[in-house]
Amino acid sequence: MEKRILDRNSVLPLYYQLKEIVLEKIENGDWGIGSQIPSEKDLQERYEISRATVRQTMDILVNEGFLQKIRGKGTIVKKPAIEEKLPELKSFTEEMKGIDASKQVILKKYVEPSAFMQKILKLYSDEKVFYLKRLMIVEGKNLGILNSYIPARYNLSLKEDYSKSLYKIFEKNDIRLAWAEQTIEASMSSKEETRILGLKSTIPILVIKRLCFSVHQEIVEYVKAVYHYDQYRFKIKLTRL
Fold first, then answer.
1. Mean per-residue pLDDT over the chain, rounded
2. Measured in Å, how far apart are the chain's first and last C-alpha atoms?
3. Which of 17, 66, 181, 188 could form a disulfide with 61, with the two C-beta atoms 3.0–4.6 Å apart?
4. Per-residue CA distances from 5 to 17, 38, 53, 193 (Å)
5. Residue 62 pLDDT > 80, yes or no?
6. Which of 93, 12, 78, 109 is nearest to 231 (CA)?
């Protein structure tokens, strides 16, 4: 790595200048995914900055998901988080197109709805709910959990292969989705979620709650998805009115 002196007269802080250099090397492929980057001491000497500045830069890049610190190995370039662009309405299968991804069906059955589910899905007084629980797997690692609740009136079969796209199954049953309301929030994984994800302890998670509507403006599905906090992110385009 070439020696490059940072501009101490710049309005940009030194840690930010170093951050831009590191990101440039990652984007250019100079430092590939999984490769170890120079140590904090090396970066300190090459850019003639303090160890504290280097450490601040590394911590920021770790928190933003670009780098990962591994005990006994150092700091490596981390694989980018899976990105979903909003406001496109896509199934997990569609989002993972071109990626080694699959779903494992944990549970599928018709159940009595809770008072909350009865209200949010606007169910008939004696209507049941088709409950579908699936584990999302990407490149051999557990990414998250999908919990889908669908009114029984849509008559989804228990014999269907729900490891495939649920939206495609909807279409096969003449159920066409048009739009959805979605919320995104941060939380901590429950004991059950921690167990299903194959983790030893609870972790921060992204919780996505989505209510899907058909072209006839009828509620089709309520889904609660939980994602591993550092493996998934959302990208939103904002327009100033």
1. 85
2. 45
3. 66
4. 10, 16, 14, 47
5. yes
6. 78
Residue type, 87: P
Question: Distance between CA 8 and CA 83 in Å, rounded?
Answer: 35
Q: Where are the domains of the chain?
A: 14-77, 82-236
pLDDT digits (tens, 9 = 90+) for 83-93: 555 456 766 66
Q: What's 190's DSSP letter?
A: -
* Interval 40-63 mean pLDDT: 89
Backbone angles phi and psi of 164, in degrees to 5: -90, 180
Q: Is 88 helix (H, G, I), strand (E, B) or coil?
A: coil
The answer to whether 198 and 48 are in contact (CB under 8 A) is no
Q: Which residue has the tokens 């059955």?
A: 109
- Two tokens, residue 34: 């999984």
pLDDT at 221: 96
Q: How far apart are CA 197 and CA 182, in angstroms?
A: 23
What CATH number has the domain spanning 82-236? 3.40.1410.10
